Amino acid sequence: MTTPDILIIGSGMGGATLAAALAPSGKTIVILERGDWLRDSVAARDPAAVFGGHFSPGETWYDAAGGTFTPNNYYHPGGNSKFYGAVLMRYRAEDFRPLKHMGGTAPGWPMSYDEFEPDYQAAEEMYQVRGALGEDPTEPHHSRPYPFPPVPHEPDMVDLCNRLKAQGLHPGALPLGVDIDLWLKGGPLTFDGFPNTRGGKSDAETIGLAAALKHPNVTLITKAKVTRLVADAGRITAVEYEHDGQPKQISAGTVCLCAGAVKSACLLLASADAANPTGLANRSDQVGRNFMNHNITAVLGVSPFRRNRSVYEKTIQMNDWYLTGGPNGEPLGNVQMLGRITGEIMAAESGLPLFVSRWLADHSVHLMTMSEDLPNPESRVTLRDGQIVLQWHRSNWEAHDALNAKLKATLKKAGWPLVLTKTFEKRTPSHQCGTARMGLDPATSVVNPDCRSHDIENLYICDASVLPTSAAANPSLTVAALAIRTARQMLRG
């Protein structure tokens, strides 16, 4: 293979969108993707298979105490977005500025929301987002309306909205990358958590990668596991990878690392050499640090007198407590629907008998609360004898407790007398980010605001690892917008 102009490692939301934005330039682009194509199968619409680990790669990660767990990360063209809930939500404008929380202060970004807004707009248009303006008092400025009207609320969700509005709250449409009619042609199930093998979700493979591969200058190599970056004199000179079990090497004028917050950090750490003993791009000692993973809790409002007849359910968000609600007016976070939990899903997740799970699922509404996890240099990803070690210190938990309490009281008042909660565990990839943080100061950050390494002139990092804050918003749209912004800066030279 001839040396490409640009090599992209990973084809998730960052890598695929970056490739799509760069492809029209005519530059030769090679994408290395660790996994293979996600094929359709009966298991793709089987709740027991999907939530029972059928699609899991079966990796083992370690925690700081030496315990092990199996993370819900996936390796396919499109990455984790093949299974995502398709929420494509902007950070609020306030998230780009320092913001005081109950658990500390979020540091903000090295750019303003207004500077970043055109990239959000471009990402929404690329990923065909369904949404509505004017419903959410925290919604930041949009230069244009959403490309498509929102995914319609099902009748029982309209009832829930009305009950929330009766309490003076502002439920509204959740911004989604879903063609619901196309999705439901594959079967009457929610899109949240199920693999997109029959169409309907705007994921990184069906949108970003598909757009990139229409160009003859773009090549995708699947089953290519990158193992090391080789550097010399401040440049990446080669990338080592295994392809179908065989060692390979490739060079490129520019290398873009887009393997995800955990894997990108691990690859930089694993590429340590004599000149870079703590890992590549790590003069700041920040690679792997500041790991963030939203505080998320599933909240079920249960009523024996009311049935939930919805199919997909995940269309509502509520941000009344996003910027305020704490004892001194501190932010608490976002509330949004989970995808419709069926008895089969609940049984697979909880271990309850199926008849119990079916009754509970059919007599409840299914929401989630999401609160910001603040950056902490001691929350970090490291390698121990080549194995991934995740040391995650949850932060801002007081705010999450307060958010859960507010939602519980609201649901009870709305007519669901029993409220059950379950906090997501560390094995759930609840929006991992922060391990190669963006910033202006090379002493305290890994990349600059263009996502270019401070240390290595031909290395860009463009995935959730560079996010300086987690906010309380699903990160997919922000990662896509960053990729569009990064592509523009790369092409400017």
UniProtKB/TrEMBL annotation:
Gene3D superfamilies: FAD/NAD(P)-binding domain. The keyword Plastid does not apply. Keywords: FAD, Flavoprotein, Oxidoreductase. Residues 427-483 form the Glucose-methanol-choline oxidoreductase C-terminal domain. The keyword Kinase does not apply. It comes from the Bacteria. Residues 193-294 form the Glucose-methanol-choline oxidoreductase N-terminal domain. Its cofactor is FAD. PANTHER family: PYRANOSE 2-OXIDASE. Belongs to the GMC oxidoreductase family. This is GMC oxidoreductase.
